[in-house]
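Researcher: Predict the fold of AAA+ ATPase domain-containing protein.
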Amino acid sequence: MISNEAHVKLAPHQSLTPEQETLVQHIHHFITSHITDEQPAIFVIHGDAGTGKSVILSEVFYQLQQARRNPDSPLYQTTNYFLVNHPELLKVYRQIAGELPQELKKDFQRPTSLINQCHKHQTGFDVGVIDEAHLLLSQPDHYNNFYGQNQLLELIKLAKVLIIVFDERQVLRLKTYWTKARLQQLLAPYHQEWFHLTTQFRMQADDQVINWIDHFTGDQRLLPITPSFFNNYDFRVFDDAEIMRQAIVHQNNQVGLSRVVATTGYPSTLDGGKHYIHEGRFKLPWDQYNYTVTPWAEIPETINEVGSIYTCQGFDLNYVGLILGPPITLAADQQHLQIDPTKITDVEAFKKRDDLTDPNELNHAKITLVLNAINVLMKRGVRGLYLFAHDKQLRTVLTAMYTNAIKD
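Model: Structure tokens for AAA+ ATPase domain-containing protein follow.
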């Protein structure tokens, strides 16, 4: 049986809010209304990390697969796929499918695999449900066998209806570079409907914590840390990365699913070797490529690794200890963050693309991607968020803010 918390949250039949239930019903109506249209139709669920987008998609797809087996349904015998361009998240969905009567593991695919399969057999499909659509490739990627210009456009050509989840603040690589404006421009020729989710479900934190993170990773402003941060949430700032690691290990021993993660800025090369993050007494290797069917965060030994956006995006952790790497520094006014693109070490994620020829636009895109990564990593922790900053000035200011809030 599915017992892991991440599996439970992504499995269908969870307790949905009235708003979520209404949205699921509305999406089902959207599918049945447009399944016979001559032109593709797209439904976009837009919302920040932790707003329940994946939970809704999971329920939508389960009901869709039920309907395709019902002779009385207009969706009878339709061919439908659930797509996600994230190998770790795909493992979870396929494990869930193995436990459910209406779903098959082969229903869950990587976009490139399905696109190439459809092209090879000259076929299409009826409904595509796409989680994390902001991870779809928006340029060719021959290394991963995608030779088109844009994965979403290719999927639109193959499908009758697409239901997609999109969050421009979770765009993390230049080869998957999206903005809301770019998405709207691509979808302009097609019938479309948008729904914006706002309620935060993942983090058991006060709204002020969410607001603090949104400013930290948005306009880069450092808001005060207040006593309300500690209302039913374990928010801490550390002056020593090793002590933070020990606190995360303790939480992992108590409740599980607790990991140290980090932003870019440390040696990182996909060459099969180990590359270490070193901060004072703290020294751990980056996460290794996971060849198993078990998601990275669920492997016990990964408590001795540092997670990244590649292993943590889309997942719930109980506690997350985030190391803010060298590109993230304190601005001269001591009230804002400053991002130094020259200290980015994730070469693959920030590889230049041909359609970003303006150096200023490219630089802005890199800064945005670093801020997006911080936002994603900060919002992993359901029960707690621990912070350590490499930049000494930033660490001093954050520690002082945190210490003063504890005293109040």
